């Protein structure tokens, strides 16, 4: 996600400038689902993996009543391999970067499996925080050098994997869990009971037919994943229904606007003319109008982009009855809610790029509409 690292620093800085005049908001009628502890993606553009891994961990808490701490970097490593093949086969005319989408994590788990964090942290040489700036730069330079000499060498991937080994460590081919040996694939299948077909990708735009799948046109969709298209009100209803049925949701959104205030624990839909002092911000301040037409315009003029992915784990109400979504971020325990942010329905409606949700969370009516 191209903006995510800058945004982390901006909001850390804004939160550090005193909070004495800001009243932490209160919410009511709260339904908050179980989630694993907040993590910190640090200096990486891997929010897509942290958010979707958190989704899978919540699914395990719901279905098996077990808490798993799964390795994000095992997935990131494997997706870098997928990206490299795509980049080479497309002659360098393809997206290659740190970003991705939730379906990439789902696909990687299906293809390569999963491992516990304790078996593969992705931190080497005593590192305590992730920083992939050098890793990404070296991988990009290597691939561009490979493309300079054609036909491409048959063993080009070998040196590429060595770079991943250097920066992330060598992943385990086999490991022990509760006294039994597993490979990453058998762990995902037998322990996590993971099935990629249990998940569905959804979005809402007006330039394609509703209730049909299409390839979402955002840069980080390097794998050309398909998303079912829904009317805006129905996309929002899917999220609410999912939470009501005790399922959480992976959320891809634009956060590069003044309404996303991690340091204050709120995301509100402000227009360009709205200006509030910090002490005036609260869940019930006036927000800008939203509808599908405005949403489409912001998408097509590239104002709304897929900056960042997070994890929706609940729904609640403000004092005046406005709907908010409880969202787990992956920037560490920033803000008054220690890493969580409360997102208004208006903000979600305008700034959502896509969601991934378990199919079981959909209503019977939605199953029929999508011909599932």
Report what the structure shows.
- The protein has 372 residues and is an alpha+beta fold.
- It has helices at residues 4-16, 47-63, 72-89, 102-112, 133-148, 156-168, 184-191, 232-244, 292-300, 345-351, 364-369; strands at residues 28-32, 175-177, 180-182, 199-203, 213-215, 226-229, 249-253, 260-261, 266-267, 308-317, 323-328, 340-344, 352-358.
- Strand 2 and strand 3 form a beta hairpin.
- Helix 3 crosses helix 4 (102-112) and helix 3 packs antiparallel against helix 6 (156-168).
Outline of this structure?
This protein is α+β, with helices and mostly antiparallel strands and 372 residues long. It has eleven helices and 13 strands.
Provide the descriptors you would attach to this structure in a database record.
single chain, 372 residues, alpha+beta, 11 helices, globular, disordered N terminus
Fold topology:
Blueprint: H1 4-16, E1 28-32, H2 47-63, H3 72-89, H4 102-112, H5 133-148, H6 156-168, E2 175-177, E3 180-182, H7 184-191, E4 199-203, E5 213-215, E6 226-229, H8 232-244, E7 249-253, E8 260-261, E9 266-267, H9 292-300, E10 308-317, E11 323-328, E12 340-344, H10 345-351, E13 352-358, H11 364-369
Parallel strand pairs: 4-6, 9-12
Antiparallel strand pairs: 1-10, 2-3, 4-13, 5-6, 7-10, 7-13, 8-9, 10-11, 11-12
Helix pairs in contact: 2-4, 3-4, 3-6, 5-6
